[in-house]
Amino acid sequence: MKANARHHGKVTVVDLSGKITIGEGDIKLRQAVNSILDEGRKNVILNLGGVSYMDSAGIGELVACYKRAREKGAALKLLNPNGKVQDLLILTKLQEIFDIYRDEREALASF
Amino acid sequence: MGRNVRLRLESRIVYVDLVHEMTEGLARRMGFAKPMALNIGLAVREAVINAIKHGNGMDASKRIEVSFEQDDGLFRVRVRDQGPGFDWTHTSNPLDRENIFRTSGRGIFFMKHFVDRVEFQRRRGQGTEVVLEKKFEQAGRAGRGGEVIKRRKG
Q1: Does A100 lie at the interface with B, CB-CB under 8 angstroms?
Q2: What pTM did the predictor assign?
């Protein structure tokens, strides 16, 4: 899994690619989000467009990131979950929890 | 492929990807469409994670055994651990409102969603075996197993 952060004013977009699974992807996701939150940034978008699938550990880490962001007074939103990732968000009912966007400009403007 | 394939591995998380990829590959060779092969791979992946984490307690000296069988219209995968066993009967529903924000507890839920049958069996003094089964649903694409189903339905 790869994670690349880019800043748009007060918003940080993290482009994720590969798979978010136990042992590597989940840890990289945690590190990427922790690093952004530790910098004091409050508006985070995880761009899932390049993520092929997640397992239960990956889904769990996504929830953990959401909770950590809230604890730090930040907001974490999702962009472009595709295919299997979207299926998993629907299956776990997490699509009811997360703010999910299809369009990056719309996501950026939502903060 | 042959009718049966068996793997015996140390309890290390690095092997989860290996088993997942092998499961998907075998499912594809049996004739499952790509999305279904991924589902089966994800289910087996969760069973292997369970076996390593909760069955064998991350003890690398304990082994997990994964066997793949093509059997009369079914793809069956068995995942065995050597641990003291874990209580699969008291898993909470991850869809309950109070569990939505939990960061764990979705593995068995995924297994049950992605294949047709999941069965846990405690083997006296020998750990736990999880059996996962997926039926060939599209006879025309399912290879030998599918032909069996087609004949029976016909």
Answers
A1: no
A2: 0.89
